[in-house]
Amino acid sequence: MNDLGIQINRNIKLEIMTVGVDKTPVIVIDNFAIDTHDIIAHACSHAEFKALDNTYYPGIRAPLPKDYIINVLQAIYQDICHIYNIPQPLQLKPQEAYFSLITTAATKLSLLQRMPHFDTSRPFYFAVLHYLNNDNHGNTGLFRHKPTGLDKIEAHNVETYLTSAQRFIDDNGESPQTYCIRSNEHFELYQQIAYKPNRLVIYPGQLLHSIIVSPEKDIDPNPKTGRLTANIFIEFK
């Protein structure tokens, strides 16, 4: 292992959660790395965090070290292909890779930041999320859109979802000026994936999801104390 990578725990065991109407697999791996000290230290001392213009993420991000990305993807590549039945001709293509910290106060959130979201309607796009810090931070919540019953937004239903969501807002007004952390009239919180240090989570970008933000602990720009995660987005093309 070099200075900016991680050593993967060879005794890891995958937990496969099945979520939503389609029983979509979500992979959860506890104790993923032998030691996360070096990658956390890099985030604290060397990462250059900043807000990005091309995302609705409510905070700041910094590029992940290339060696860390390689270590993670080499460890999980075959499991993703097997569990999600990736067609053989397709190849893994990293899309984005960042450290992430929540910094946006609820009063500053845009409408879309106050609602659960999906990353894409494309079928072979995945989020790889590594929880890093040792504290009780906000979970990842999975949501169902009540008017349509959809929890997974795909090419064949994306227009139905977007049209219905806009109609609900037009009829009922915008969602409250706060993070979406529980069920409301528009969305049902049906599953949570707990934030646990050194837990790796993999899920399709089609799932409606949101961070269950605890303002007191999670809105924090300090990588030593904030809700520090490593986020890798991949697509098989």
CATH architecture level-2 label: Sandwich
Helix content: 10-25%
What's the level 1 CATH class?
Mainly Beta
Enumerate how many helices there are, as a single number.
4
Strand content: 25-35%
Q: How many angstroms does the end-to-end distance come to?
A: 29 Å
Mean pLDDT: 96
Q: How many discrete structural domains?
A: 1
Low-pLDDT runs of 5+ residues are none
Tell me the radius of gyration.
17 Å
Major pleated sheet: 7 strands, antiparallel
Quick structural summary:
This protein has 237 residues and is of the alpha+beta class. 19% of the residues lie in helices and 27% in strands.
Characterization of this structure:
By secondary structure, the protein is of the alpha+beta class. The chain has a single domain (14-236), classed as Jelly Rolls. 19% of the residues lie in helices and 27% in strands. It has 4 helices and 10 strands, in the order ββαβαβββαβββαβ. It has helices at residues 37-45, 66-83, 158-172, 215-218, and strands at 14-19, 24-29, 59-63, 92-102, 125-131, 140-145, 187-193, 200-204, 209-211, 229-236. A 7-stranded antiparallel beta sheet has the order 1-2-8-5-10-4-3, covered by helices on one side. Strands 7-6-9 form a 3-stranded antiparallel beta sheet, with no helix packed on it. The two termini are 29 Å apart. The mean pLDDT is 96.
